[in-house]
Amino acid sequence: NAGVTQTPKFQVLKTGQSMTLQCAQDMNHEYMSWYRQDPGMGLRLIHYSVGAGITDQGEVPNGYNVSRSTTEDFPLRLLSAAPSQTSVYFCASRAGGSYNEQFFGPGTRLTVL
Amino acid sequence: AQKITQTQPGMFVQEKEAVTLDCTYDTSDPSYGLFWYKQPSSGEMIFLIYQGSYDQQNATEGRYSLNFQKARKSANLVISASQLGDSAMYFCAMREGREGNTPLVFGKGTRLSVIA
User: Fold this and answer.
1) Cβ separation of B50 and A31 shorter than 8 Å?
2) A99 and B50: CB-CB below 8 Å?
3) What CA–CA distance (Å, rounded) separates B107 from A106?
4) How far is CA A98 from CA A32, B33, B35, B97, in A?
5) pLDDT for residue A1
6) Model pLDDT, residue A16
7) Mind listing the pLDDT tens digit for each residue in A13-25?
8) First vs last C-alpha separation in chain B
9) CB < 8 Å from B in window 70-109 of A
10) DSSP string of B30-71, one letter each residue
11) Is residue A65 a contact partner of residue A79, using CB atoms and an 8 Å limit?
């Protein structure tokens, strides 16, 4: 199993550009989430999904869109990049049940100039 | 209000000593799970240990143990016999609800530095 994969690993954007961060998992997990990590802020939840076709907002959803058309994929779209979106982005997935650990992708380091 | 509070931004510990990383949480749901993750300088997130709200005993995994005090709403991570490789960021996280349909919420983390 590849686990949770994210592409790209690094990305530099100019203000106003749009892009999609890709996330895929091969563990048939129902739950997938996107987090951003900023120094001193921990991991903050952007959006999450409890299954294909179902998404919901997290703590910091503004400026981001998601969709979940398949169990495997959960892309995160930046609509119009801003310098405040410079961050490390983590995708995560887990099986159902409250006790299951969450598996993380390696992260995408995004810089918006 | 913050659901997970980690009050120690940074900690130092001597190699081979034990260290406790603090975590307090806030929930009104009787069913919840508490998790600890380690993030070394390479950036990956590594799951360490889990404690369920109904678990009668404190969780242990090798050198990691969780000091779970339900009435105080605290879930401190204890690392015994610290090693240089334990130097990392440590995050406490919580998931509410019996069915586990809610996302994992993280604290801001504690940076642990192990000194030789």
Assistant:
1) no
2) yes
3) 19
4) 14, 6, 11, 7
5) 75
6) 97
7) 999 999 999 999 9
8) 38
9) 88, 90, 92, 94, 96-104, 106-107
10) S-EEEEEEEE-TT---EEEEEEETT-SS--EETTEEEEEETT
11) yes
Give the largest Cα separation in chain A, rounded.
41
Contacts of A106 in chain B (CB under 8 A): 43-44
- The number of residues in chain A equals 113
Find the largest Cα–Cα distance for chain B: 44
CB A42 within 8 A of CB A17: no
pLDDT digit string, tens, across residues A34-89: 999 998 889 999 999 999 999 999 999 999 999 999 999 999 999 999 999 999 99
Beta pairing partners, A46: none
Residues in chain B: 116
Residue B32 distance to chain A (closest CA, Å): 7
Token pair belonging to B3: 């659901």
**Taking the CB of residue B77, how many other CB atoms lie within 10 A of it?**
26
Instruction: Map tokens 């490390």 to a residue.
Output: A88
Tokens describing residue B52 = 């369920």
